[in-house]
Design a protein that fits this description.
- The complex is a heterodimer of chains A (about 190) and B (about 270).
- Chain A has about 190 residues and is mainly α.
- Chain A is about 70% helix and about 0% strand.
- Chain A contains 10 helices and no strands.
- The two termini of chain A are about 15 Å apart.
- Chain B is of the alpha+beta class and about 270 residues long.
- Chain B has helices at about 5-15, 20-30, 35-50, 60-75, 95-155; strands at about 160-170, 175-180, 185-195, 200-210, 215-220, 230-235, 245-250, 260-265.
- The radius of gyration of chain B is 31 Å and the shape is elongated.
- The chains are: A mainly alpha (about 190), B alpha+beta (about 270).
- Chains A and B meet through helix 2, helix 3, helix 4, helix 7 and helix 8 of A and helix 1, helix 3 and helix 4 of B.
Chain lengths: ~190, ~270
């Protein structure tokens, strides 16, 4: 995700947040609330839990924006990594309390309608979805189980009934293929 | 395990999908390998983009306000601390008991300082290694670029060189390219400008058309300005009388042209 032309760059916004600029935090929230909440919700399948985690994530951004180092990675990666990590932690805590994903998934949440969603989705988002669509189903599934359910390679192998070596190969091949497609589809991705 | 084994595991590490033992091994390797640290960061960029696959769902309208309220209540908070201050009953110490206690405290402080110093220098060393790896990568990239430019100049000025201008067709009227090659060796360079960006599943392909038969050249992508520079080898049969063209093809390229022509040299 990139700021529109004329918008303040993400790195500058995070620097301002590190100086405890509330307006900058509000701007980061407005820019990233949709993608981060969608990711957290995809992991937890529970609106209330997801909203709690989203709030925790932005409080963490407020406190730790000074830790972000643009020389080491992109702001998008930093924010998404924070959100995913918090959501996976919450998922495991819920599981340990006996609440399974399947139970949580019983909650029906209206998703943004397709046409509206497509309009809201960034160009980067559209390219990524096209890249994922090009992956063979088994590679895509391995990536999703790791990323959205926080499973390790052994857990994925057990879940799918596949040999561990096969899962490792599929996961790496899926990531390589995805990176190749992104490199040709996103000009500033390298 | 060797370096390449660890490299193979970095994509899975970026997804946090390694089992504990593998993760520990990779992390130990990362502590001393700046190249792998950089590669892991690149894989993390790729992994984070998976977030886009989530269906879009708006958070409740009140969440933003809740966050800002919480921030305003405690604006300067840098970290949450779970510790509480516990009042201890005061004690009276004699000099004989105070001195050993002070020595123990001094030793503890010295030990903590030693650990902190070691950690500081380890971290600094890691950062310097990362910087060296980044600069090395930049140097390699610039050397490659300079070598390519030298080749281009040699091809453009060599006694046996042939230079042609490729004009944009109806598909890309503002595009143009320079194509130069050495007639004896066939070494060639193509420099394009103004070609439109392609869809993710498409790429441009160079063609050498000799006696009406198209021979495939390299497949390439352009940057945001429609620029690309690529080297190729002109087949012997196309070195004297041929037309050179660029078409839009499926991303992996085609063995014969299937898409529209974007650039073409004059018929010879």
């Amino acid at each position: 995700m990139h700021p529109e032309p004329g918008q303040i760059p993400d790195n500058d916004l995070l620097s301002a947040v590190a100086r405890h600029d509330e307006a900058a935090l509000a701007a980061v929230y407005d820019r990233y609330k949709l993608i981060l909440f969608s990711l957290i919700f995809r992991i937890l399948h529970d609106r209330q839990e997801a909203e709690d985690v989203l709030q925790e994530v932005f409080i963490q951004v407020w406190r730790r924006a000074g830790d972000f180092n643009e020389a080491r990675g992109r702001a998008f990666t930093w924010l998404v990594t924070l959100a995913r990590s918090r959501a996976i932690d919450r998922l495991r805590a819920l599981a340990s309390r006996g609440r399974t994903i399947a139970e949580a998934a019983g909650e029906v949440i209206p998703e943004t309608a397709d046409a509206v969603a497509d309009a809201q989705r960034s160009e980067q988002g559209r390219v990524v979805r096209r890249a994922l669509a090009e992956l063979p189903e088994e590679q895509r599934r391995a990536l999703y189980l790791a990323y959205f359910e926080g499973l390790t390679q052994s857990e994925i192998a057990a879940r799918l009934g596949d040999p561990l070596g096969t899962v490792k190969t599929r996961m790496r091949a899926g990531m390589i293929k995805m990176r190749e497609v992104l490199m040709s589809g996103l000009p500033d991705f390298n | 395990m060797v370096h390449a084994d660890y490299q193979d595991m970095l994509a899975a590490r970026a997804l946090d999908a390694l089992d504990d033992t593998d993760a520990r091994l990779v992390d130990e390797h990362l502590a001393g390998c700046a190249e792998c640290v950089l590669e892991l960061e690149a894989w993390r960029d790729t992994a984070s983009l998976l977030a886009h696959n989530a269906n879009l769902v708006e958070p409740g309208a009140e969440i933003g306000k809740r966050i800002m309220d919480q921030v305003r209540r405690n604006p300067a908070a840098r970290a949450e601390t779970g510790g509480k201050v516990v009042l201890m009953p005061s004690r009276t110490f004699g000099t004989r008991r105070v001195l050993p206690a002070l020595l123990k405290i001094a030793a503890a402080i010295a030990f903590v300082a030693l650990i902190a110093g070691t950690f500081f220098f380890w971290k600094r060393d890691l950062e310097l290694r990362r910087e060296v790896a980044r600069l090395s990568r930049e140097i390699r990239s610039q050397q490659t670029e300079m070598a390519r430019e030298r080749d281009t100049i040699a091809l453009l000025t060599g006694p046996d060189s042939k230079r042609l201008e490729l004009a944009g067709t109806e598909q890309a009227k503002n595009a143009h390219a320079t194509f130069a090659f050495d007639r004896s060796s066939g070494r060639a360079v193509l420099v394009t400008e103004g070609l439109p960006a392609t869809a993710a599943d498409k790429a441009y392909e160079l063609w050498f058309i000799a006696n009406g038969h198209p021979l495939p050249g390299k497949v390439f992508a352009v940057d945001a300005s429609g620029r690309a520079t690529l080297s190729d080898l002109v087949p012997p049969e196309a070195r004297e009388h041929a037309v050179f063209a660029v078409t839009l093809e499926p991303r992996g390229g085609a063995s014969s042209p299937t898409g529209p022509i974007y650039l073409s040299s004059p018929s010879s």
